[in-house]
Amino acid sequence: MNTFGRCFKITLFGTSHSPVLGVAVDGCPAGIALDTKWFESDLARRKAGALGTTSRIESDVPHIESGCANGYTTGDAIRIVFENKNIRTDDYRRFKVQPRPGHADWVARQKYGDACDLSGGGIFSGRMTLPLVAAGVIAKRLLQEKHPNIKISARLLEAGGSRDVAAAVQAAQEAGDSTGGIIECCVIRLPVGWGEPFFDSMESCISHIVFAVPGIKGIEFGAGFAAAKMRGSEHNDCYIDAQGHTATNHAGGINGGMSNGNELIFRVAAKPAPSIARAQETFDFARKQMAPLVIKGRHDVCFALRLPVVIEAVTAIALADLSYNLTGVAPE
Predict the structure, then answer these.
(1) Structure pTM?
(2) 106: which of 99, 150, 195, 265 fits an S-S bond (Cβ 3.0–4.6 Å)?
């Protein structure tokens, strides 16, 4: 399904090479300042063009078709549309018979048959992070209005296992290959008690939407997998004051599925982009034999370079949904 959220709800539509793609956002209250200028900064952070990113450049101008008037939200569903202009559909036709390793080509054809759209990766493309970022802008605006002290930030910690991101990307590009990365996201000044145990815990909701981002393969909160190597005496975060602050933050700002007032911190692993310039050997389903495959086109060497703002966006969306109480009313 293309919908996430219960009270603050987003629905994606379109694909990488469809005439338009976008997002419908329902549950945003009236009176939130919002027009196209609010989208400029985050959309620019996601844009391609830098070393290691795709050469496909789109204008990515958001068209707000409903839900806003005179620079403010109206309380109705907000529909935002982007145009796809720089497309090369013919580059993808052969992948129905010779699916690209690491892509969803083969499983998409098994699920949807010959009608499946593989152009640009279709619904599975990194292009679909564009409407996610747009929805994230709206979620950030809601949070800023209702909880102005909350701040969400994400950064790329490493690429290809190296803190020298530029060198790792350069090396992968020169090899005709790609590389993945680790993104860290932090949320400060989050009120205590957000999250609804059992199945709507803070970790559950954030993980759900994070794994909707194409290419994400793992997530850890706080100490994460390192906690398995620790003892309780090491991992326990001891309280140091009446406000609930702790000496350490191995829990990542979450206890019992709820925010505990400390910094919410998690990291996600993004895989290498599967479309690479170097030749590969893979199965040709038409000829029923192995055959060489050279993928031409415009692809990211390191898509993780463009992911920090996407991770911020999906985090904001999850938090905006969790900010509503059980009556569906956003708390003041």
Answers:
(1) 0.95
(2) 99
